[in-house]
Amino acid sequence: MGLEKMSSTSWFSGLIFLNSLLLCMAAGQVHYYDFVLKETNFTKLCSTKSILTVNGSFPGPTIRVHKGDTVFVNVHNQGKYGVTIHWHGVRQPRNPWSDGPENITQCPIAPNTSFTQEVIFSTEEGTLWWHAHSDWTRATVHGAIIILPKPGTTYPFPKPYAEETLILGEWYKGDVMAIITEALATGGDPNISDAFTINGQPGDLYNCSNGTTYRLPVYSGKTYLLRIINSIMNEEQFFGIAKHNLTVVGSDGAYLKPINTNYIMITPGQTMDVLVTANQSPSLYYIASTPFADTTAPFDNTTTTAILQYKGPSGNRLSASLTNISFVTPKIDILQAYYRKLPRVFASNFPYQPLYYFNFTGDVGNNTLYPALATKALTVNYNDAVEIVLQGTNVGAAENHPMHLHGFSFYVVGMGSGNFNNKTDPKSYNLIDPPEVNTVGVPKNGWVTIRFIADNPGVWFMHCHLERHASRGMDTVLIVKNGGTSATSIRPPPKYMPPCSKS
Q1: Cα(189)–Cα(20) distance, rounded to whole angstroms?
Q2: What is the pLDDT of residue 341?
Q3: Backbone angles phi, psi at 312, to 5 degrees
Q4: pLDDT grade, residue 370 (50/70/90)?
Q5: Are strands 318-320 and 401-405 parallel, antiparallel or unpaired?
Q6: What is the C-alpha to C-alpha distance for residues 94 and 468, in angstroms, rounded to an integer?
Q7: Range with the lowest mean pLDDT among 109-123, 433-447, 489-503?
Q8: Among candidates 128, 91, 372, which has minimal Cα distance to 269?
Q9: How far is it, in rounded angstroms, from Cα 116 to Cα 111?
Q10: What is the mean pLDDT of residues 248-257?
Q11: What is the rounded CA–CA span in Å between residue 480 and residue 394?
């Protein structure tokens, strides 16, 4: 009898433990990080300068979680400027307070103060990133976010042998804050960067950089998952590996139908998950990234390189030059956005249509004063179905525009050249398997249609991720009203938020 009682008690205790474990797994784990913003000296391109960093590294530290986890990041600002941190692509359900856009949902974290941000992961899985969201500080203040599948689940493709994060960045010899301040004061174009980088290193083609070129070691026959992030300020980038094919399996924290290609084009703000198999003769192969620019605006027309290095005695000589990487320039601006009138869409102060029509992508003539994207906020009800058409124009220097929406991922259901036709273009929409992203490149003199359900109450920033455009006001705000319950309404703000300047 005593033995039976002990077994029953053990079983009951085990059941409680198992239920608690399952509940814990369902709710996700909680992680804690400390980000210390501080000036740090780095030597690149034959000279030394001080840059703003997180924890003294460039790029900054990686946040690594499983799907559904929560992260608390205590940001300590020991730098010279007020700064905010944005968790790019993280939905932050009902929690705009920790989203990070400066003077939208919070004021800057002042020097010598701290602010703890709660980063809530929900549906995201794959690769995202974090970056400063104050003026041009994100040039050096950024890092990767890796979201692994939930425990007990795996990728929707064969598990790779290993993975590596590749952050495309850039290096300015000048002070980035001074560069944008001067450009805004004079109305001129900001100075371009002096080099592009891969994981902080410019590569073989720049002065004083050969010895620090980033190397990615691989074993012959193995498949690797590359998590590629474009943190560059103003240039969309081609990326490829000499003599190696790429399979794109994810973008912006969501999986895609696999796409086989020999190179990718990735806009500022975007992330891509790419599989590559080391199936060539063991040697050294260039990894290269160079800008795509179809504009009259100045841009950094240089190339950064890294090296894919096969492990073993044969992997010690460079067998592939840059001529082995072929980037074919595709013919693929956003100064106008407007709604299509889907059922349940509500907008009180943002026009359903452009204020007046003209040939957006033709000879704009005297229409250069046409309102920019930042005219008004978009307001919708909770759970509304929203469709937004982003129309490129020929106003100013027409070019591609990577548009990013905070607080949401959206489906890209349509894309085309020229002026959007409200009657004929919707017939070509992909309503079966459109890609889900948080940043989309709108074609030069073309259009993109996105759709999403407004199920995240709050105030969410939308802007061009070319910093020279965002700095001049190419942005707006999406306001999603509260639903009818506490579970469908904005959470209360935390007890402490960075105070706003009185000046």
Answers
A1: 58
A2: 35
A3: 120, 175
A4: very low
A5: unpaired
A6: 30
A7: 489-503
A8: 128
A9: 14
A10: 97
A11: 31
CB 199 within 8 A of CB 58: no
DSSP assignment, residue 109? Answer: B
Q: What are phi and psi of 182, to 5 degrees?
A: -65, -40
DSSP for 248-277, please give it: EEEETTEEEEEEEES-EEE-TT-EEEEEEE
- Element housing 463 (H / E): strand 458-464
Q: Give the position of tokens 């969201």.
A: 133
Q: What is the DSSP code (8-state) at residue 185?
A: H
DSSP SS3 for 51: strand
CB-based contact 199:306 (threshold 8 Å): yes
For the segment 46-102, what is each residue's pLDDT rounded down to a tens digit?
A: 999 999 999 999 999 999 999 999 999 999 999 999 999 999 999 999 999 999 999
CB 256 within 8 A of CB 248: yes
Q: Please state, as a whole number, how many other Cβ atoms lie within 10 Å of the Cβ of residue 21.
A: 10
The count of C-alpha atoms lying within 13 angstroms of the C-alpha of 172, restricted to the half-sphere facing its C-beta, is: 23
DSSP E strands, 25-158: 30-44, 47-54, 63-66, 70-77, 85-88, 113-120, 126-132, 142-148
CA distance 413 to 410: 9
Nearest to 80 by CA among 51, 107, 100, 58: 51
186: three-class secondary structure by DSSP: helix
Beta bridge partner(s), residue 33: 73
C-alpha 118/C-alpha 449 separation (Å) is 31
